[in-house]
TrEMBL record:
Keywords: Cytoplasm, Exonuclease, Hydrolase, Nuclease. Bidirectionally degrades single-stranded DNA into large acid-insoluble oligonucleotides, which are then degraded further into small acid-soluble oligonucleotides. It comes from the Bacteria. Belongs to the XseA family. This is Exodeoxyribonuclease 7 large subunit. GO terms for biological process: DNA catabolic process. One of its GO terms (molecular function) is exodeoxyribonuclease VII activity. PANTHER family: EXODEOXYRIBONUCLEASE 7 LARGE SUBUNIT. It comes from Methylomonas koyamae. The gene is xseA.
C-alpha cells in the first residue's frame, strides 16, 4: 500500500514544482518569436514565445514595461530576461518576463548580465566601498564628449547653481570601439594628476549598443580603482549601465549629476546670512547684559571703587616722580657747575694727577646719583603697588569674593550690623559677589 506521506494534493504538487523551478533556473534569457500577444485592460502583456520546435507561455506585468525601448508585436524576434515559474491555478509552466529586448540586442544583454554577476561577486557594487562626495568641491572633473548635449547640460546647471567652481573637462569618445579605452585612460589620468575633487562620467541617451562603452569591464575597473569619487550619469533615467553599479553615485541624467555635485549658491548664501544675523543678535544680547552688569557695579561701589583710589594714587606717584626728576636734574646741574669751576682751576694749574683723581670722583658721584635716582623711583613704585594691594584687600568686592555678604535694610543704603533693630517681617537686601537677593525675616534668634 502506498505511504500517505508520498501522496501530494494538486495544489501541493504545483507549489513544490514552482519552488523547484525558481530555485534551479533563477533568471534565464530565452530567445523566440512573439505570438498570441494579448493586451488586456490591466496593462499586462501575455504572449507566447516560440521557435520551430516548441513554445512557452509568458507574462510581462505592467510595472516591468517602463524600460521597454519598443512596442512588442506578433512576429517580433526577441530575447526575454525572465524567471521560470508555474501558474499554480492551472498548472501552466510559464516565464515571468522582467525585460524584453529585440533579438539584435540579445548578445549584448547576455554579456551585460554575465559581467554584472561577475563584478557583483567580486564586491565591486558593495555600498561599503563607495566614497562620499565632497560637500563643496574646489574643482569638478567631467569625462564626456566635448561636443555632446551632456557637457552643455552639465555646464548650464553648474553655472546656474555655483558658477565660482571651476570645471575641468576630459574629452573622450563616448561611443564606438575606442570609447572604452579613452574613458578608462581619462579616469586614470584624473587620478594621476588629481586636480578635481569629484568626477562626473556622462553621456546622453541612446540604444544599448550606443551606450555599450559604459558596460565594458575595463571601464568598470577604472571606476572602481579611482581614488576620486565618481558620479555615473549615462543615458536617461530608465537606462542602467555597469558603470552605474560601480560608481560611487548613480545620477539618472547628466543634469541631475550637476545638481547633485554642488549646492545652490543662493541657498548657501541665505544660510550664511541667517547664521550671521543669529551670531550678531547673540553678541548684542551678551554686550547688553555685560553693560547692565557694569552699570550696577558702578552704582554699587560709587566713589569707594578701588580703581578710583588707585587712579588718585597713580596721579600722586606721577607728581612725586616729576619732583624727583627735577631735584635730580638740579643736583646734576649744580654738580656740573662745580665740575666746571674745578676744571678751570685745574686747567690753570695743569696738575695731571689731580685731574685724573677728580675724574674718578666725578664718575663715582655720577654712578651714586644714578643709583639714588633709580632706587628712589623703585621705592615709590613699590609703595604704590603696596597701596594698590591694600586698597584691593579692603575693597567691598574683595570681601564679597571671599564668601561674605553685605546686608542692608530693603530700599535703604543703611547697613545691618546687628539683629538688635530687626523685627520679624522686615525685608532685607543681601548682596553677594555675583548678585543680590531680597528676603523677609520670619524668625529672630538672639544669642
Amino acid at each position: 500500500m502506498t505511504d500517505s506521506e508520498s501522496i501530494y494534493s494538486v495544489s501541493e504538487l504545483n507549489r513544490e514544482t514552482k519552488r523547484l523551478l525558481a530555485n534551479h533556473f533563477r533568471t534565464v534569457q530565452v530567445q523566440g518569436e512573439i505570438s498570441n500577444l494579448s493586451l488586456p485592460s490591466s496593462g499586462h502583456y501575455y504572449f507566447t514565445l516560440k521557435d520551430t520546435q516548441a513554445q512557452i507561455r509568458c507574462a510581462m506585468f505592467k510595472g516591468q514595461q517602463q524600460r521597454l525601448r519598443f512596442k512588442p508585436a506578433n512576429g517580433d524576434l526577441v530575447v526575454a530576461t525572465a524567471q521560470v515559474s508555474l501558474y499554480e491555478p492551472r498548472g501552466d509552466y510559464q516565464l515571468v518576463v522582467e525585460h524584453l529586448a529585440e533579438a539584435g540586442d540579445g548578445a549584448l544583454r547576455l554579456a551585460f548580465e554575465r559581467l554584472k554577476q561577475k563584478l557583483l561577486a567580486e564586491g565591486l557594487f558593495d555600498q561599503e566601498r563607495k566614497k562620499p562626495l565632497p560637500a563643496l568641491p574646489s574643482r569638478i572633473g567631467v569625462i564626456t564628449s566635448p561636443s555632446g548635449a551632456a557637457i552643455h547640460d552639465i555646464l548650464s546647471v553648474l553655472k546656474r547653481r555655483f558658477p565660482a567652481i571651476p570645471v575641468l573637462v576630459y574629452p573622450v569618445a563616448v561611443q564606438g570601439d575606442n570609447a572604452k579605452f579613452e574613458i578608462s585612460a581619462a579616469l586614470a589620468k584624473a587620478n594621476r594628476d588629481p586636480q578635481a575633487d569629484v568626477l562626473i562620467l556622462a553621456r546622453g541617451g541612446g540604444s544599448l549598443e550606443d551606450l555599450w562603452a559604459f558596460n565594458e569591464e575595463i571601464v568598470a575597473r577604472a571606476i572602481a580603482a579611482s581614488e576620486i569619487p565618481v558620479i555615473s550619469a549615462v543615458g536617461h533615467e530608465v537606462d542602467f549601465s555597469i558603470a552605474d553599479f560601480v560608481a560611487d553615485l548613480r545620477a539618472p541624467t547628466p543634469s541631475a549629476a550637476a545638481e547633485r555635485v554642488v549646492p545652490d549658491a543662493n541657498t548657501l548664501l541665505g544660510a550664511f546670512v541667517g547664521f550671521e544675523r543669529q551670531i550678531l543678535r547673540l553678541m548684542q544680547q551678551k554686550l547688553l547684559r555685560q553693560h547692565q552688569h557694569l552699570q550696577w557695579l558702578q552704582k554699587a561701589l560709587g566713589s569707594q571703587h578701588p580703581g578710583q583710589k588707585l587712579q588718585r594714587n597713580a596721579q600722586r606717584l606721577d607728581e612725586l616722580e616729576l619732583r624727583l626728576q627735577h631735584a635730580l636734574q638740579n643736583r646734576l646741574a649744580h654738580a656740573r657747575q662745580q665740575l666746571a669751576i674745578r676744571e678751570q682751576r685745574l686747567y690753570r694749574s695743569q696738575p695731571l694727577a689731580a685731574i685724573k683723581n677728580q675724574q674718578r670722583q666725578l664718575q663715582f658721584f655720577r654712578q651714586r646719583l644714578q643709583a639714588a635716582m633709580h632706587g628712589k623711583i623703585a621705592m615709590l613704585k613699590s609703595r604704590h603697588a603696596a597701596a594698590a594691594q591694600t586698597l584691593h584687600a579692603v575693597s567691598p568686592l574683595a570681601t564679597l569674593e571671599r564668601g561674605y555678604a553685605i546686608v542692608q535694610h530693603h530700599g535703604s543704603p543703611q547697613l545691618v550690623k546687628s539683629i538688635g533693630p530687626l523685627n520679624a517681617g522686615d525685608l532685607l537686601d543681601t548682596r553677594f559677589a555675583d548678585g543680590s537677593i531680597v528676603s523677609r525675616i520670619t524668625d529672630i534668634c538672639r544669642d
